[in-house]
Amino acid sequence: MNKLHYSLEEIPPVLLAFLALMLLIQGTWMFQDARKRDRFPWLWGLWGITSLPGPLLIYWLIVIRTDRKRQAGSKKNR
Fold this sequence. Notes:
Keywords: Membrane, Transmembrane, Transmembrane helix
Radius of gyration: 17 Å
Number of helices: 3
Oligomer: single chain
Order of helices and strands: HHH
Protein name: SigmaY antisigma factor component
Distance between the termini: 65 Å
Helix content: over 70%
Shape: elongated
Structural class: mainly alpha
């Protein structure tokens, strides 16, 4: 078999459990943070459990970064 492809039998169960735990933590955190910010929590939470770390980076760019810019702009206008 090609060295770049692995079957599930070749991957240690501890690594699979760690990956599942990290995906669950990421999805849960994204859901809770999006709910706090009122920004489509179910979308972000479900997408957060699909892969690592892509959804988290995009969430940071779209939601967190824009909220920080908006808050900084509102403080300047006061």
